[in-house]
Amino acid sequence: MKKFLRNIVLACMIVFFAVALSGCGGKTATEKAEKPVAKTPLTVHYGYQPGHVQIVVAREMGWLKEEFEKDEITFELEKFASGPAMNEAFAGNRIDFGQVGDQPAIQLKSNNVDVKAIGVYSNGTKITGLIAANGANINSPADLKGKKVGFVVGSVSHQLLYIYLKSAGLKPNDIQQVNLASSDILSSIASNHIDAAVIWEPTLSNVVASGAGKLVTDATGYKENINVIVGRSEFLSKYPDITVRLLKVLDRAEKWIKANPDKALEIIAKNSGFKPEVLRPGFENVIFDLRLTDEAVKSIAETAVFLKENKLIRNDVNVKDFVDDQYLKAAGIQ
Fold first, then answer.
1. pTM of the predicted protein model
2. What is the model's pLDDT at position 39?
3. Among 180, 202, 262, 333, which residue carries the largest CB count within 10 Å?
4. Exposed e or buried b for every residue in 139-165, given b needs 16+ CB within 10 A?
5. SS (H, E, C) 180-230
6. What are the structural domains of the chain?
7. Quick check: 193 pLDDT over 90?
8. Residue 60 exposed, middle or buried by CB count within 10 Å (0-12, 13-18, 19+)
9. Which helix (DSSP H) or strand (DSSP E) does residue 130 occupy?
10. Is there a cis peptide before residue 281, judged by omega within 30 degrees of 0?
11. 101 forms bridges with which residues in the sheet?
């Protein structure tokens, strides 16, 4: 009997101390969940280039703020002249996302910068091309032999130039290669510093509109121009939800642009500094489709092979590892 009473007293003491400790030792899981968690402000850095559309429209229409402000997340957009310049920012961890052509994106990955392509912001064959100065007597890629040709080293124009040359039976050393910033192409053509250039929109149409040069050919039949949205792998892994929400905002902008092309053109003209009439040809020829389609992935893979064969990258790039469509799928876009 005494043993029975002793066990009861012992059990009561254990319960008493357990309750006491739970009261002093902290909140229950339910109470913790009910208590608001302090939000840590976060700034997301996003790189783009003059003439890029979705991200600029999303900002100007207030959709980035609408989606992220409640969580104290701010997007800072930074404009770059070209993909290679943006690559430097990625390498220095100064941006989290960026919009570049497939060549600079693959070169970035080849240089051991841990990034992934998570979407396509634009594509098409009429948004890059070969332009020639008036009087240069250049009417096809075959006429480039011996000429001074400007392009942005490490950009999509670099690859396209080499494709043009190969199609005409020429090699890179058959021309005088001139590395230029995209912003210097027009003045270089106008001053006859170069005879021709391979460049993208809106510089392409700007040269033609100025009267300083003419379009010789676009990329139709030569190369599908795939421009990708690249994200730092560290950021993607740490903030997958932000990545998915961002893609949803860009998808919203894409749909609005297709339904309101003239209004979108006004927004981009104001942001880029180019006149609407200069932007319009490229705007009408570009294809907006965020998806990483089989065709897009195939084109990216072909670019990777081309770059390695032409010794424009040192390390092989596994495109299956580089391209990551899980965020598009989670957003219901892919």
1. 0.84
2. 66
3. 202
4. eebebbeebbbbbbebbbbbbbbbbbb
5. CCHHHHHHHHHCCCCCEEEEECCHHHHHHHHCCEEEEEECCCCCCEEEEEE
6. 42-123+225-330 (3.40.190.10), 128-218 (3.40.190.10)
7. yes
8. middle
9. strand 128-133
10. no
11. 227
